[in-house]
Amino acid sequence: MTPAPLLPPGPQTRFWQPLAYVRSPYRFFRAIHARYGDPFTVRTVALTAMTAHPEGIRQIFTAPADTYHVKLPPSQRRVLGRHGLSGLDGEAHRRTRKLISPSFHGESLRGLGGMIHATAVESLAAWQPGSVWEARDAMRDIGLDVILRTLFGVEDRARLAPFRAAVLEFAGAFGNPAFLISALLGIEHDAWPPNRRLDTARHQLAALLRENIAERRATGTARADILSRLMEARYDDGTGFDDAALVDNLITNLVAGHETSALSLTWAFAWLGRHPEVAERLQREIDSLGRDDDIAAIQALPYLDAVVKECLRLYPAVPEVVRMLAKPLELRGYEIPAGMNVAACSAVLHMDPAFYPEPERFRPERFLERPPSGFEFIPFGGGDRVCLGNHFGVFEVKIVLAVLLTRGRFELLDRGPVRVARRGFLMGPDRVRVRFEPRR
Ligand code: HEM
């Protein structure tokens, strides 16, 4: 009989761990790391060997692609579909990513700046002076409108309403706690109400997207949005995405992209309201531009860049980046067997005083004094599956913040200790109420 492999140390309890993980992954990972060292083994959704050390993270992110495979659980397939990037692995993933990636980077991204700017300006114009809003809701509305314009290409006012309703219903269905709990428990029946609500919502959204695609195929209208770019993209053999792949990739990006950016913006309000000295320095830098529609100038502001990174560092929306092993992997002296998961733990790495002195403090200056390496700062994951929207997300957050701070004044009403809450699959700040006054 072959001996069981020696895994990194970790607690032995079976039931307490998933519960503690679901309640607060930050507290859970930090406590276990402090007790057992690095790497460590935990039982979250599955048995997982984790590291928060840059060397271990390098080993995970630079391993050959065939070290890992993707097995989307049925609940995730229900949300993302069968033909989107997240469900692919190996060569199929590499090929598809190569085809999609240019639409989210470089020239294509620069072309989207005007749409994001217009979305932020229109949202702000609708707010009443003195109104109080929950930052998460307001930022989510902006995030959804950004998606509708940049990804789906919906600009026509008359068509916005049904699209917005379909996206909101779909986002509500996959973020519904009842759906998340049933997904964790493996309840997959089509007739189960949370599953049925999700299927119906996805079906309606997909129908609108297919209609939009068919119209473009018929009229051949070329536009600056991402859907147009995806429709024009070609593999080396001259073929492109069929409708099913277009729809699933648009929906994948909607799921992966709308709430993550909105949570980063919400964190910005939570932190700036508690740190007036940072808010003043940022305001001076943004005001120095004199206008808020010079997209290239906004992107080049060093302090704005540092503020956005510090918001991404403290409580990363995805506290651990997981890979499923198809082959054994050497992780800091341990051989982790195929079938297990490995994970890079940003929740612990981003709090390591060796890289981030006084890690609990919100201090954007740290990114100007000592920019971290790619294995010391991982809010977007890394390696072959690094977030497809890493540039898009930061680009969007910077434009929206620049517009809001140029045109508005914001007073944070909830100034107590920072509290973090689960937001579906993600983590984000709890209760960030803000009072708005126009500046000009
Ligand atoms: C601040 C905003 C965002 C954060 C913090 C974030 C974070 C992440 C993380 C941690 C991953 C997993 C990466 C890995 O496994 O190594 C990921 C994957 C992904 N993200 Fe993002 N994301 C953000 C914005 C976006 C946006 C705006 C989009 C698209 C519009 C997007 C699309 C995706 C996609 C498609 C994947 C899967 C990539 C693949 O499997 O190849 N994300 N994101």
Summarize the structure.
The protein has 18 helices and 12 strands. The protein has helices at 16-23, 25-36, 54-62, 74-80, 90-100, 106-125, 135-150, 157-175, 177-185, 193-219, 226-232, 243-272, 276-287, 295-299, 302-314, 346-349, 365-369, 390-407; strands spanning 40-43, 47-51, 68-69, 132-134, 320-325, 329-331, 334-336, 341-345, 408-412, 420-423, 426-429, 433-438.
Question: Keywords for this structure?
Answer:
monooxygenase; three-stranded antiparallel beta sheet; 440 residues; 18 helices; Cytochrome p450; alpha+beta; single chain; 53% helix; five-stranded mixed beta sheet; binds protoporphyrin IX containing FE
Secondary structure elements and pairings:
Elements: H1 16-23, H2 25-36, E1 40-43, E2 47-51, H3 54-62, E3 68-69, H4 74-80, H5 90-100, H6 106-125, E4 132-134, H7 135-150, H8 157-175, H9 177-185, H10 193-219, H11 226-232, H12 243-272, H13 276-287, H14 295-299, H15 302-314, E5 320-325, E6 329-331, E7 334-336, E8 341-345, H16 346-349, H17 365-369, H18 390-407, E9 408-412, E10 420-423, E11 426-429, E12 433-438
Parallel strand pairs: 2-8
Antiparallel strand pairs: 1-2, 3-5, 4-12, 5-8, 6-7, 9-12, 10-11
Helix pairs in contact: 1-2, 6-7, 6-18, 7-12, 8-10, 10-12, 12-15, 12-18
Bound molecules: protoporphyrin IX containing FE.
